[in-house]
Amino acid sequence: MLREKWALVTGCRRGIGQSVAITLAEYGADLILNDLTISDEDEVAVAVRGLGRKALCLSADIASPESVDAMFAQIKEKAGRLDILVNNAGITMDAMAHKMTFEQWNKVLGVNLTGTFLCCQGAAKMMTENKSGKIINTSSVAGFIGNIGQANYSATKAAVAGLTKTLAKELAGKGVYVNAVAPGFVETPMTEKIPDELKQQMIAKIPLKRIGQPKDIANVVIFLASPLSDYVTGQTIQINGGTFMV
């Protein structure tokens, strides 16, 4: 379904990003794998190649305009095109709002929001040349219902949903679709740090009574990246087991 397509996945070394990259490869896409540091020996690159797909590893700090520009220059040189962008990279630096430092606030905004914007900008320039492309951003349920101790994270994820709508309108006439996914509570290295008792309390509040898996997110990304979603743009799809219903 995605053969002869090049897909860039940011923050792909583990968790949701790794699952998304591998699932894209399962559906035939060749991968441009990005993280702060990544190499051909990383698990995700080995898995992609094991599926018979190409894996181009590009280390870059997406919060840096210069680093992002260099990454997209390499994409143009080595892949020649970009068909799919999955903006997955994100960080947390939690603290109660009244105790949050400017560094905690600014660093999370830099990666989660500015990084998403910079990658969208770079991808849009390449995709509009071909009048074709799919951009999938990563929001979060926290951006819609808030989360104690995550004023910075929740703000970025709400902003990503707004950014997605604006870009969808700007690029709709140029053959580029822009959507977002908003995961809920998902089993990732980021959530492994949560104490088991608190984790069980969180699961109890989910109508489907289970924690989400990275593959649950990857499956929706595949839909948005494929021709199956060719009448869908500007949407943020909630993937949270019923925790938050639009």
SSE map:
Blueprint: E1 6-10, H1 15-26, E2 30-35, H2 43-50, E3 55-59, H3 65-78, E4 84-87, H4 102-130, E5 133-138, H5 142-145, H6 151-171, E6 176-183, H7 196-204, H8 214-225, E7 236-239
Helix pairs in contact: 1-2, 1-8, 3-4, 4-6
What does this protein look like?
- This protein is an alpha/beta fold and 246 residues long.
- It has one domain (6-239): NAD(P)-binding Rossmann-like Domain (Rossmann fold).
- 44% of the residues lie in helices and 15% in strands.
- It is built from 8 helices and 7 strands.
- It has helices spanning 15-26, 43-50, 65-78, 102-130, 142-145, 151-171, 196-204, 214-225; strands at residues 6-10, 30-35, 55-59, 84-87, 133-138, 176-183, 236-239.
- The protein has a 7-stranded parallel β-sheet with strand order 3-2-1-4-5-6-7, with helices on both faces.
- The relative contact order is 0.14.
- The mean pLDDT is 97.
CA-based shape: globular
**Total number of beta strands:** 7
Percent strand equals 15-25%
The side-by-side strand order for the widest beta sheet comes to 3-2-1-4-5-6-7
The low-confidence runs, each spanning 5 or more residues with pLDDT under 50, are none
CATH topology tier name: Rossmann fold
SS class: alpha/beta
Distance between the termini: 30 Å
Annotated CATH homologous superfamily: NAD(P)-binding Rossmann-like Domain
- Topology order in helix (H) and strand (E) letters: EHEHEHEHEHHEHHE
Q: Based on the structure given, which CATH architecture is correct? A: 3-Layer(aba) Sandwich
The gyration radius over C-alpha positions equals 17 Å
What is the helix content?
Answer: 40-55%
Largest sheet, if any?
Answer: 7 strands, parallel
- Counting structural domains, the number is 1
Average of per-residue pLDDT values: 97
